[in-house]
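Quick question: what would this complex look like in 3D?
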Amino acid sequence: LKIHHDCYPCFLQQALRAARLTGADEAQQHVILQHTLALLQNMQPDATPPEIGYQVHQFVHEVMGNQDPYLEKKRLSTQQALALYPKLRSMIQQSDDPLALAMRISIAGNIIDFAMKDQIADLWETVERVIQQPYAVDDTAPFKAHLNSVNQVLFLADNAGETVFDRLLIEQLPVPVTYVVKSKPILNDAVMEDALAAGMDAECESIVENGSQSTGTILSLCSESFRIRFETAPLVIAKGQANYETLSSVGRSVFCLLQVKCPMIGEDLKAPMGSIIAGYFGFHP
Amino acid sequence: LKIHHDCYPCFLQQALRAARLTGADEAQQHVILQHTLALLQNMQPDATPPEIGYQVHQFVHEVMGNQDPYLEKKRLSTQQALALYPKLRSMIQQSDDPLALAMRISIAGNIIDFAMKDQIADLWETVERVIQQPYAVDDTAPFKAHLNSVNQVLFLADNAGETVFDRLLIEQLPVPVTYVVKSKPILNDAVMEDALAAGMDAECESIVENGSQSTGTILSLCSESFRIRFETAPLVIAKGQANYETLSSVGRSVFCLLQVKCPMIGEDLKAPMGSIIAGYFGFHP
């Protein structure tokens, strides 16, 4: 997904929110805003929103010191999600189609996202909505077939707390899963600590870092070892908008699970805000 | 009111909305956004939001030709307001305190504002809310006393359609009124045509232009003849946020009537969004 004109004001809002969250005073906020204005003037025409977001957040880190401003929010999100875990697990176990329900529950967890707002919607309400809602993009049938033809899955995480919802899906996958988190904190994206706090080590063959500190998966910022995994994995599941934005045209097939929370992504997917998406992007398997 | 950091993203949104409303294609939108980024980088630290808005809209005019993109919206607003006029007038006439009610109705009309949104709220619902709502800033008592000590009023208009609601207030003022509109179209601000369409010529001693094409009242952009009126008028009533933003620290007392529709103005006034304000700013009479 390329940067849309409507992304410009959104980047300034994100810069300001990140600045304030790290305790920037008025003068520091000003420096961060001015830097963001310059970034927007000098963008490469094919940049994706997470690439600019990465540069904004890197600059905030430079000005404010390497903090992890979302640490408390991330821990709280994980706790809230873990509180729902037993109930969601028995719903899935009692379901006629546990895999289909687990996929929807993993998408419901994608509501946990502090990139654009400071508050998230009620988790349980979101679950109730998403388990009933028709998919705006529905490749779940080819996905089930695909799943039966592979011997492993590479699963790209999105946010802390959402990890617990991903765990419920991974429990239903019939093959070993490698779960991928960010190497360093960016917004409320899951890092190793968040995956472990969600209990992911009990369900996955391994948990690995992608080598980067950006949202989504910007391959040029990832480690060589991750890129090899990504290129060779027979099936990649990617959670959330930023993964869709960065991977929807990399030239390999990626199965994206997400909620549409940005009007520009909705326009790109021809799906209204609040839609749920389970679709292959890149070339079809 | 000085420019707040939160105004930066808002200016980009306004630039984009103005560009699209004048039919700008992607390339023209890009030019307008880039120019706005440069404006934000080079702002004077004491600039007010309407001053930057003026520069943004001037540039849109330069790129797209001198259009009046809000012409149809303005005419429609006036029609909608005129449809309510007889009912509002009899409400005022039957009221125990016609002046107080007319003041609230004039403030209700301030909901007509396309600066930040493309749609306005329902006019009648707004009237019903505003006639009951407590004032967040209430200088109506000194205003009434002030009104009895002057022999004329200078009334600074805000938007087309709101003019009809202002007319209902002006009918209740015991002294001759000069109604002031913008000289050229900017957003949906009232120009001479809009004042006449509201029937203002029947109620005012005169209708004059302020010499400028900016929202609010940027004295340095106004005509010499208007500035003299402004400086010498014994009582100035100013409608809307932009007049508050540009006149709240000019060094003469101005009686502002407005609804709070911008979070930064709300912060400045210590009043939540949706508040109604009837207050003297500058020095008190």
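Answer marked as accepted. The two ends of chain B are 20 Å apart (CA to CA).
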